[in-house]
What we know:
The complex is a heterodimer of chains A (466) and B (325). By secondary structure, chain A is an alpha+beta fold. Chain A is built from 13 helices and 18 strands. In chain A, strands 9-18-17-16-12-15 form a six-stranded mixed β-sheet, covered by helices on one side. The N and C termini of chain A lie far apart (69 Å). Mean pLDDT of chain A is 80; it is low at 98-150 and 197-226. Chain B is α/β, with parallel strands linked by helices and 325 residues long. Chain B has two domains: 2-183, 3-Layer(aba) Sandwich (Rossmann fold); 196-322, Rossmann fold (3-Layer(aba) Sandwich), CATH 3.40.50. In chain B, the strands form three sheets. Chain B has a seven-stranded mixed β-sheet, sandwiched between helices. A five-stranded mixed β-sheet of chain B has the order 9-11-10-13-14, sandwiched between helices. In chain B, helix 10 (268-279) links the parallel strand 13 (256-260) and strand 14 (289-292). In chain B, helix 1 packs parallel to helix 7 (151-163) and helix 8 (212-225) crosses helix 12. Chain B is globular, with a radius of gyration of 19 Å. The mean pLDDT of chain B is 97. Chains A and B meet through helix 4 of A and loops of B.
Amino acid sequence: MAEKMLMLALSPTMEEGTIVxxxxxxxxxxxxxxVVCEVETDKATMDYESMQEGTLLKILVAEGESAAVEQPIxxxxxxGEDISDLLKxxxxxxxxxxxxxxxAAAQGAGSSEAAGGKTEGSEASEATGKGVAGAAQGGASxxxxxxxxxxxxxxSPLARNLAKxxxxxxxxxxxxxxxPGGRVVKKDIEAAKAGGGAVAQAGxxxxxxxxxxxxxxxxxxxxxxxxxxPVTSTGIEEQHIKIGRKRAIIAQxxxxxxxxxxxxxxTTSLRTDPLTKARERINQQSVKAGGAKxxxxxxxxxxxxxxxxxxxxxxxxxxxxxIYIPGSIDIGLAVALEDGLITPVVRNCGGKGIRQIDxxxxxxxxxARSGKLQPEEYSGASFSISNLGTYGVEQFTAIINPxxxxxxxxxxxxxxxxxxxxxxxxxxxxxxLTLSCDHRVIDGAVGAAFLRDLKAxxxxxxxxxx
Amino acid sequence: xxTITMREALRQAMExxxxxxEDVLLFGEEVAQYxxxxxxxxxxxxxxxxxxxxxxxxxxxxxxxxxIGAAMAGLRPIVEWMTFNFSLMAIDQVYxxxxxxxxxxxxxxxxxxxxxxxxxxAEYLASQHxxxxxxxxxxxxxxxxxxxxxxxxxxxxxxSSIRDDNPVLFLEAEMMYSWKGEVPEDEYLVxxxxxxxxxxxxxxxxxxxxxxxKMVLQAAEELAxxxxxxxxxxxxxxxxxxxxxxxDSVRKTNRCVVVDESWxxxxxxxxIGWLVSRNCFDYLDAPVELVSGEDVPMPYNHxxxxxxxxxxxxxxxxxxxxLYV
Lengths: 466, 325
């Protein structure tokens, strides 16, 4: 008996996955546990291990294409089995979804991609319609009445009656039904009635055309400003970039954080010499002994963890019903990737030494760069650090990375004039730290006290031992 | 009006009918000396004596056949099956004699008999003792099948069943025996074959009967919190079915969910689904939904046992799906 192979949720936040490559081809035998394909999730690329056995009869989602979790990506069954019914079923299900997408496109999204979706959707629903036309009583005459050739508009029997009585052409609502698979239901007829003649007049072709023309016209808005001279090419090609999984998740999570967590920001400036000099000495010894240099990030993470120990609420999470303070200080370090960013997490920084933290950071960053970071290695940070100092950024405000309630933005080291007690001027190496806090969890004075103590530790690392 | 349990309402019905007509008699396993496995027949032996109330051996086919014979000879027996699971032992008597006597005798032999007992899943009783078997009785022409959900309906319908000249399968439920409800002091009958609107509503029709009815009313309250007014139609009788009441309601609401705790295949619920789509086709805004027991033997594990039965959530979801919300 052939069955669908479904896209699985390979990470806790995954809603959709992109097939990077198929390691099994149609016709191949599959055992339980075999890797059948590689899936790019919201954060990582992972192997898809089959929990089904049999022969891979049909690949439904090609390499480079994506599927939502629970959507079929392939069909598995016995060799030579007839799977046409199953394929029809799958097709009719997906026709439903693309018809919905088509509806949205018709409302003037205007992108060429969406307009393509529209065309596909209406073709598919027509095809499905043909299958049942013969069986449905009076289907032909009603189709004739609504002026659709050869196909049948999906509408509930009640909606058909209501439309007939109200003098609304069902064809005007084709593909815009709010029911499953674009079925026109009572609500849609009522909406059409409320909207007056307009909806009944505007045929589907007209709407689809508008969407297409919209897409073609889009490049030309500048030409409307007739007074400006023609612009020579900038060398930048206009393009529409498809939103990948990573980008979509980044957009979703960060919007959620920024729009729901009330952020406020605290900036302090501190002298870096005590810390950088301590690091230099340690690294010199380490290199002499044949060891590796320890990164500044590792020092910062350790000192931050020590400061958090003194202000555990900075480590807490807002859980709607309660505030949760975890027993472990898990610090995420934002790492820029070519196609996004990721925050590998070093667990329990409060209980580890700088050398161990550094080793773990190196390993996680390497994994992150090669896209092999596993979900448990990048989720659930209780505090995060983002360092843009290396780009020469002196100060910035970062968006909190949920479930954490705070993130620290690290700026570049600058030389600043300082007035000494005798009135003369000296220069100090300085760095700005900006703490973003979720006010639901961390009050201003608490955030300030934490930052004060952190500054004290940076300027005198021995403080961390107190 | 007095508030009494379903158990007491059933007992009153039998007592009143036995006083009214001395041809009415009651027998089955443990109905007399033990006062009934579920105490529905409490005190009837003391009241009417062992000639009219007596215990039988554990031999369902035997005492069921004996009841059918007694009915053919002019008495009006009430046969209690300890549960409908055991009725399977007696099903040949019901199918081939009770259901067919009137027809095959050219109308000469009436069969005024009531088969009653608990039907459907209770709790922790596993696969063999948790079955809702109404479909196999409703399947047969010649039988009436009654399935009340309140003490009031149960009493009035059991009295009507005892007075009916046809064989009546009277479905009770173990979980329902202690449910309470108002029952008038004065005598009344509830006619067989009449459904009852237990809650009026305009947005969706929830068709139910027997034990699930209470849960369906809870689901209707949940839906009301979201502004959805469900009409709950309690069939009370499965056969003859009050089709008109179903059609009237569905033609008003345009949407129908049938709730039936038996298995979905060839069930009362699936039959109603067909009737509605056949007779209310032009009024439907969505396909008829069926919330049934899951198509599996009843699991013993309690979590699975509950998951295998209709629930408030399942009914709410089904109602929303036909409302496209």
